[in-house]
Design brief:
The chain has 236 residues and is an alpha/beta fold. Helix content is 40%, strand content 16%. A 6-stranded parallel sheet has the order 2-1-5-6-7-8, with helices on both faces. A two-stranded antiparallel ribbon has the order 3-4. Helix 4 crosses helix 5.
């Protein structure tokens, strides 16, 4: 590997790019020769509860459960797409909590766009949501990431995501992923993280830690992160 791998980092609900960067300190420092992380802040205000820390300057979300969830999600996809154009190209994606769900949605859309481009076909709006078809077309210039590392993630309960990964024209996401779930996670129960790994991805490595809703940062886990990256086929 001649250069650090550039990774797009998507924070959790009520976090922002800076707070996520701060909390990922041990992860960043241990992989500083391997990863070049770029932290961005979600476009929506988190409306459902306050951030854990009063020091947080922004409480942001990729979507809120109240209101039109898909409309906010689609806006976030377009926001991330522009960030990828501005700061990319990216080799991989790192997500935490809602950011992991957002990463899964993004990769499912990118895979659909890639498949369409390879097959020289167009998604049929009679069988797919029209807005979903439009998003797929917009992402045609985005190559799939080479890998993703998803912490405390969950399967997004959206019919559009279901259509992408398990519908008649859908398929599981073919991106190597490392999924980390906590046995005592009170915010995202372990089972929801397991569901994301098993139901949405083809090449998923699932790891379970004894803690709660956080990114494990001790030496043993940092070693596993490095081993996952070292084992990737980066020519794909």
């Amino acid at each position: 590997m001649t250069r650090p791998l550039r990774v797009l980092c998507l924070h959790g609900y009520t976090q922002n790019g800076q707070t996520f960067r701060d909390r990922m300190g041990p992860f960043r420092r241990s992989l500083k020769r391997t990863l070049d992380p770029v932290f961005i802040t979600a476009p929506h205000e988190a409306t459902e509860f306050q951030p854990e820390s009063k020091e947080a300057s922004e409480s942001r979300a990729w979507w809120n459960r109240s209101g039109d969830v898909w409309a906010e999600t689609a806006q976030s996809v377009r926001f991330i797409h522009q960030a990828m154009r501005d700061a990319g190209p990216f080799d991989g994606i790192v997500g935490f909590s809602q950011g992991s769900g957002m990463a899964a949605i993004l990769m499912a859309l990118m895979q659909a766009a890639h498949t369409q481009k390879l097959q020289n076909t167009h998604w049929d709006a009679d069988h797919w949501d029209a807005d979903l078809c439009e998003l797929i077309r917009e992402l045609a210039d985005c190559p799939l990431p080479k890998f993703a590392m998803l912490f405390a993630g969950f399967y997004p309960e959206l019919p559009q995501f279901d259509a992408l990964v398990s519908g008649p024209k859908g398929c599981k996401i073919n991106v190597p992923t490392l999924h980390m779930v906590g046995q005592t996670d009170a915010i995202v129960p372990m089972e929801r993280g397991q569901l994301l790994a098993t139901q949405a991805f083809v090449d998923a490595q699932l790891r379970t830690h004894e803690g709660g809703h956080f990114v494990p940062g001790n030496a043993a886990w940092r070693k596993q992160y490095q081993e996952f990256i070292d084992g990737l086929d980066l020519q794909r």
